Amino acid sequence: QVQLVESGGGLVQAGGSLRLSCAASSSNFRINIMAWFRQVPEKQRELVASITSGGITTYAESVKGRFTISRDNVANTMYLQMNSLNAEDTGVYYCNEVRMRFSWGKGTQVTVSS
Q1: How many helices (H) and strands (E) does the chain have?
Q2: CA–CA gap between residue 21 and residue 108 (Å, rounded)
Q3: Fewer CB in 10 Å around end: N or C, the chain?
Q4: pLDDT digits (tens, 9 = 90+) for 68-113
Q5: Phi-psi region of 42 (alpha: psi -120 to 50; beta: other; left: phi over 0)
Q6: Residue 30: its pLDDT value, please?
Q7: Per-residue b/e over 50-73, b at no fewer than 16 CB within 10 Å?
Q8: CA-CA-CA-CA torsion for 21, 14, 45, 107, nearest 10 degrees?
Q9: How far is the C-alpha of 44 from the C-alpha of 21, rounded, in Å?
Q10: CA 5 to CA 18: how far, in whole Å?
Q11: C-alpha 47: how far from chain center
């Protein structure tokens, strides 16, 4: 029902920044706890950050202090500001409801060179 499109990834040097966007097709987005996930080859997809409809956030310990998740419920869009990137942040980033109830988008590739 809800279609998700991630964008904003790219190639960046260690220490650099990227801002990812997640556009949702439905206003139902507004009531859900949303999240960013990332996946690297041969590893499970992991939760990076989450945000409630009211803006309460959580972060994985590995990104706390470097990443900031936000959302615009009017625009049905979620963001992930990533600063101080390192090689371990490399992966494909996906957005979804925190319990992964929506269909997955294609993700956006983030590559950090060192």
Answers
A1: 0, 10
A2: 9
A3: N
A4: 999 998 999 999 999 999 999 999 999 999 999 999 999 999 999 9
A5: left
A6: 81
A7: bbeeeeeeebeeebeeebbbebeb
A8: 30
A9: 22
A10: 17
A11: 9
